[in-house]
What we know:
Layout: H1 4-14, H2 23-31, H3 35-47, E1 67-73, H4 80-87, E2 93-98, E3 110-116, H5 119-133, E4 140-144, E5 155-158, E6 164-167
Antiparallel strand pairs: 1-3, 1-4, 2-3, 5-6
Helix pairs in contact: 2-3
Amino acid sequence: MIDDINRLLIEQLQQGLPLVSRPYAEIGKKLNLSEAEVLKRLAKLKQLGVIKRLGVVVNHRRLGYKANAMVVFDVNDGLISQIGGHISQFDFVNLCYQRPRQGELWPYNLYCMIHGKNKKAVLKQLEYLIEMCGLRQCKNEVLFSKQCFKQRGALYQVSSKQQIVMSNG
């Protein structure tokens, strides 16, 4: 059951964490709670499955990373966990995941995202990744972003039955 304080806490989290050294204490001030109580409530909401995870949405372009590339590979299915694990260890790779192939038109099953200051830097990092992971023989494509869309976390609202439901807003 979600009480009024937890509902307000979730609403505060949806706005993003305050950019201060102790964001949970700052949220607590707004809700008349201590930092410890905010953390305790968040832990309980996570334990109950109301909150699955807390994550960061980074605006790469504002940090100067203007070349963003999704790199797709056609990797042997039997090696995908091993290769994906290896790719994800590189600090310039921030996403690495598997998706099913889509026939002959899209034979790729391993995806990774590389952010760089410019295309030349990204392509140099990709070349290094291909060499280090033994991917020379794997077909791949590099898809650079042409447009940046607004990134944000999920929005939630409390239904009349006091359940948290996701909103597409």
